[in-house]
From TrEMBL:
It comes from Telmatocola sphagniphila. GO terms for cellular component: cytoplasm. InterPro entries: Aldolase_TIM, DapA-like. Pyruvate binds at residues 48, 211. This is Dihydrodipicolinate synthase family protein.
Length: 304
């Protein structure tokens, strides 16, 4: 086991060329940027990575490239293998285990949804069993999957069914349920927090790390937030959290994933655009976002 995930893990974007094909050649630069800005790991092929718009082969190509690139860095590597088809998930999990990766994670199937907690646990168990040597995280993201069971119940029941269960990547803003999970089984489970705009609240109740999209472009803000929190300087921590809120709010107004990819491109990491069904920013939207980021002070906030 890798121990618990600490610090800020970037849920990475998937780089595409102008023609929409995968652009593996930029991953080295992407990793260097993330390491330089202080993230502690990468969570690839997740929501931010547009997992459901990638072919199985593309997901494996990404895992292979990241596994090679992160060697020689301090970045942890977690591969998201969730899919609607459990056979594909199992293939991805087995493939991840053949590489140098730290853990896998999987969301619930969501087109046909598990009707009971036990059915959800059976889905996780099938995937986790395909890579028994890797820690398995259930990726709880009800806003995207529409699957919503109490994660404290999931952990209690799944712990006896899934030997390699490490915890839950908690992309669910329910802080009460989060605390119940944190206190289960002598805090045995790892619970990386997945809603960046509430990370300060999560730290206050016991989080030790987060996985999220905005750590790709704004890790320095979160690092200052964490150090202010650790020295009990709540005013400074709140100020940094509010910076994150303003950035995220701006991205949401412009279409979150396309806007965050555009911002990464502006930072010199050319990740290209998003794939349909998501849509890219129009030129006017790009200009307005760029101006708003400058006016906000974004580029000063993230300077190293
Ligand atoms: C619903 C959603 O996409 N949540 C994001 C957050 O990082 C989110 O983008 C951020 O908090 C802004 O709302 C992550 O939890 C997703 C994530 O980790 C991933 O891309 O796999």
């Amino acid at each position: 086991m890798i121990g618990k995930l600490t610090g800020f893990i970037a849920a990475t974007h998937t780089p595409f060329l102008a023609n929409g094909e995968l652009n593996l050649s930029v991953i080295e630069k992407q990793a260097a940027h993330l390491e330089a800005t202080g993230v502690s790991g990468v969570f690839i092929c997740g929501t931010t990575g547009e997992c459901h718009s990638l072919t199985l082969q593309e997901r494996m190509d990404l895992a292979e490239r990241w596994s090679a690139v992160r060697r020689g860095t301090n970045l942890k590597l977690i591969v998201h293998v969730g899919a609607n088809c459990l056979t594909e998930s199992r293939q991805l999990a087995a493939h991840a285990q053949s590489l140098d990766v730290d853990a896998i994670a999987a969301i619930s199937p969501s087109y046909f949804k598990p009707k009971s907690l036990q059915a959800l646990i059976e889905c996780s168990a099938e995937v986790a069993a395909a890579s028994p040597a890797l820690p398995f995280y259930f990726y709880d993201i009800p806003s995207m999957t529409g699957v919503n069971f109490p994660m404290s119940d999931y952990l209690e029941k799944a712990a006896v069914r899934i030997p390699n269960l490490a915890g839950v990547k908690f992309s669910n803003p329910d802080l009460m349920e989060y605390q119940k999970c944190l206190h289960l089984a002598n805090s045995k489970f790892d619970m990386p927090w997945g809603t960046d705009e509430y990370i300060l609240s999560a730290l206050a109740v016991g989080a030790i790390g987060g996985v999220g999209s905005s750590y790709n472009l704004a890790a320095p803000i979160y690092r200052r937030l964490l150090s202010a929190f650790q020295r009990v300087d709540l005013k400074s921590a709140q100020a940094e959290q509010y910076r994150s809120v303003q950035i995220i709010d701006l991205m949401i107004q412009h279409g979150y994933l396309a806007a965050s990819k555009f911002a990464m491109n502006q930072l010199g990491i050319d990740l290209g655009g998003v794939r349909l069904p998501l849509t890219n920013l129009e030129e006017t939207q790009k200009r307005s976002l760029q101006l708003s980021l400058q006016t906000l002070g974004f580029y000063d906030w993230i300077a190293l």
